[in-house]
Specification:
The protein is an all-alpha fold. 84% of the residues lie in helices and 0% in strands. It contains 3 helices and no strands. The radius of gyration is 17 Å and the shape is elongated. The termini are far apart. The structure holds prephenic acid. Prephenic acid binds next to helix 1, helix 2 and helix 3. Prephenic acid (PRE) binds next to helix 1, helix 2 and helix 3. It comes from Alicyclobacillus sacchari. This is Chorismate mutase. Keywords: Isomerase.
């Protein structure tokens, strides 16, 4: 027998996931644009200071909402790795 409350919660999760994925895609599009700027100015893809500052933001904003700092670091690492890959792939296509 299906549980209507469970079904409602799952639909809500699917809706939130769509938003989350759209936000990730938007962020990676911005990263590709940054990659193009770096290419024009011969800057490195990996920017340790900026990456550390962004990671701190993830942990600060996440923990303020009750999320674990370690989880936020994992999320940042995954997104940052893809962001750097997109910028490097672009360079390698040239
Ligand atoms: O700010 C930049 O320079 C970016 O390219 C963005 C970004 C990120 O995705 O957060 C990616 C690579 C850098 O190491 C730092 C940050």
């Amino acid at each position: 027998m299906s549980d209507p409350i469970l079904e409602t919660l799952r639909r809500e999760i699917d809706r939130v996931d769509r938003e989350l994925i759209a936000c990730i895609a938007r962020r990676l599009t911005l990263s590709a644009e940054i990659g193009a700027r770096k290419q024009a100015t011969s800057e490195s893809v990996y920017q340790p200071q900026r990456a550390a500052a962004v990671q701190e933001n993830y942990v600060r904003l996440g923990t303020a909402l009750g999320l674990r700092g370690e989880f936020m670091q994992d999320v940042f690492r995954a997104i940052h790795a893809e962001s750097c890959k997109i910028q490097r792939d672009r360079l390698n296509r040239l």
